[in-house]
Design goal:
Elements lengths: L2 H13 L7 H22 L14 H9 L7
Amino acid sequence: MNRHDQDLLDRQMKRIQPRPRHNGLMMLAIIGVFLAGMTAGGFLFAYQPPAHTASSDGKTALAFFLNGTPDATR
């Protein structure tokens, strides 16, 4: 690349100016989308109380763990 080519490239590149960045606006948009997603998820997947089962407190599982299972052959 010679001097003439460099000057031509410089003149062409002066036309292309990067837009000024609005970091604050971008952060507000990201936070807004995040909060909107959290709200939508809260409505779509609303809390449902867990179903009560015989071993919902874990005592049955603990009893099997400590005592083992009874032998099937007697």
